[in-house]
Amino acid sequence: MKDKSFFYIIIVARDAGDKLAGTVEAALAQSYPQRHVIVKDGASTDGSFGRLKETYGSDKRLTLMSGPDEGIYDAMNIAIDAALSHAKDLSESENAWCLFLNCGDLFHDRDVLKKADARIRQVRVRRAARAHVAPDEYGVSLCYGDTFERKTGQIVSANPVIDDFACYRNLPCHQSILYALSLLEKERYNTKWRIRADYEHFLRLRYVRHTEPAYLKMVIADYEGGGYSEVNEDRSEKERQAIIRMYLPRKKVFAYDMYRALSLQPLRAYLAENEKTAALYQKIKRAVYKNREDMGI
Known about the structure:
Blueprint: E1 6-13, H1 18-28, E2 35-41, H2 48-56, E3 62-66, H3 72-90, E4 96-102, E5 106-107, H4 112-131, E6 142-149, E7 154-156, H5 164-169, E8 177-180, H6 181-186, H7 197-207, E9 214-223, H8 233-247, H9 250-262, H10 265-273, H11 278-290, H12 293-296
Parallel strand pairs: 1-2, 1-4, 2-3, 6-9
Antiparallel strand pairs: 4-8, 5-9, 6-7, 6-8
């Protein structure tokens, strides 16, 4: 079996206030020792990066960078370059993983990375057995888990199987996805998409590189909500529609659009986001997904 995983926690920020330090502290509090935090700041003017540098400037567990960029996805690409450089110096490139947190997001508990390492190993063993090869010969490069939504106080279960319909509308939360660094080296974020580049990136990995996502069956991130895509809903939806048509046949997209309308998607979204109904909605969703869990591992 390969050596233990090495995790890069990437945080991009601009004028994030105290949330930046909070997310960095949550990353540093992880019990798993083989991890490194990379902060890419977009030339903040609110003093948040300066305060962070005063506190952690000499801390070897972090790489701190600040300077102009072309937006969140350009900043993420810059941080990937930093991870690749750091991994090369440590000779950790082969088994390195990246996870992206927005300012204000946290890990669900201090043992998330420890549990993720163990579950990635379990996935490799199980999939290798299915393929009738040794675990060391089976590569796993994209994993994901569930998300705790702080807005509603509920665990949002990820779809255990990433099929066409999941790609159409129900991908896991970006903060709860783990990417092999070697995969990100080959496929960066396309900055043409200002709001949904992470969505296009995931679909590109799935349909062009034929990456098989693995469900880890654990809660990874505590999601604050109110991110860039949520406050720019109209443009976000336009980008989503354009992206899905790049990867799925028009007839299938049309069928999914009809299903979405007939299944009262706006009502389901309201039930999922309403604090009074979210618990019941997520309970039903978990029951639906339960029978698919073994398929996604």
